[in-house]
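Sharing a chain and its predicted structure for anyone who wants a worked example. Both blocks are below, sequence first, tokens second.
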Amino acid sequence: MIKVLKAGFYTTIQDQGRIGFAAIGVPISGAMDLYSSNLANSILNNSFEEAVLEITFGVCQFQFLSKTSICISGGDFSPTINQQPVVLNSKILVNEKDILSFGKINFGARCYLAVKGGFLTEKKLSSRSYFKNITTSFLIQTGELLPISLASRELKVANTAVKMNPSHFDSEIIECYKGPEFELLSIQRQYLLFETIFSISNDNNRMGYKLNETITNNIPSILTSAVLPGTVQLTPSGKLIVLMRDCQVTGGYPRVLQLSANAINKLAQKKTGSKFSFTSIYI
């Protein structure tokens, strides 16, 4: 078990998400930055399917009630164990009563805590990913006990660490494909989509990121159609919304762009005020 001493700003259990339930209106969910989540699991020799803790902006604290091994990947929130700094993207042995804390943000918006064997919270619709009205909990609570696998006898300290490419966090280029309604835009507006430097508004969460800048919308209203994480919608007011992992499964706004899988991961590590531009992947 792991005891939550301080839950932090927005901490949830996530895995690969709920695939195959869009027909009944259930979002995919899953880790916002699947690249970092998968990296943490792979360093522990876990399956990518194992659930992790997704920690947004740090300021949380956990006590281990049993021995295990962990890995922390993604954003750097100055993690410490018993007040001693620990290295990201490495296998770390923790003992009973050890306290893991996250503090100052050095870079990124989300980090991932993986444990050997994964978190064993309830599974609903083939996933442990928290989502309101699907799972009993949708946020980690202070004082909660999180179940994990019992440690195996062969736990060993590892001295190696994996380096993550800094561009995953600081790149200002977001790769995307043309969306289904892209060609309905005028040539000038198509040009502006790729030439404008956009910034993330303070209205951003796991459902979507609204951008501050506008592109005049000349597309007539469309029938409600399927959307996915990474779909970029153009609203009647000209604002763009980038849908993220907890997004709805249908929408009525024109779908002008579709982010690549890697671009969703990179965008998940950006925060309010971060600037970027779209670049087209031609297929």
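Comments welcome. Residues 171-280 form a domain with the Cyclophilin fold (CATH 2.40.100.10).
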